[in-house]
Amino acid sequence: ASVKPKTAAQMEQLKAEEVLQTAEKESFAREKLALLIGNSTYSSGQLNNLSGPENDVYELAKALREHDFKVLSYINLKYDEMLECFDKFESYLKKLNFSGVYALFYYSGHGFLSGDKRYLVPTDAT
Question: By the 8 A CB rule, do 89 and 82 touch?
Fold first, then answer.
């Protein structure tokens, strides 16, 4: 026999337990994929080098792998390399039909805003 909850807090706890039990039975996503890019060393001399992006990507990759993410992590990419890794990420998602996938993109490095568009800066930007 189940005990009927008496308070609102007990009701909320019961609901949370039911959600967790359902989550354990059902897989919300069959794949988890992350693309992480950390650009810190810029070749043009016009942009300051950054101290954080490499460590940011390393720490985030480590945490995501602990949660069963497949992680594509890249450091200090030039323009062509950035395009190539975006293509690789998109290709992988297309193979999965963009269905049942948690996809995460993270970028740490220089960027800028022009009008209403945001841009990521590759390490070989001039």
Answer: no
Distance, CA of 82 to CA of 122 (rounded, Å): 7
Model pLDDT, residue 126: 83
Helix (H, G, I), strand (E, B) or coil at 18: helix
DSSP tag of 48: -
DSSP E strands in 1-126: the ranges are: 31-38, 70-75, 101-108, 111-114, 117-120
**Alpha-carbon span 109 to 48, nearest angstrom:** 10
**pTM exceeds cut of 0.85:** no
Please write the tens of the pLDDT for every residue from 49-102: 999 999 999 999 999 999 989 999 999 999 999 999 999 999 988 888 877 888
* β 117-120/111-114 pair status: antiparallel
What residues contact 31, with CB distance under 8 A and at least 6 apart? 70, 96, 100, 101, 102
3-state secondary structure of 83: helix
85, 3 Cβ separation under 8 angstroms: no
Query: Rounded to whole angstroms, how far apart are CA atoms 91 and 72?
Result: 13
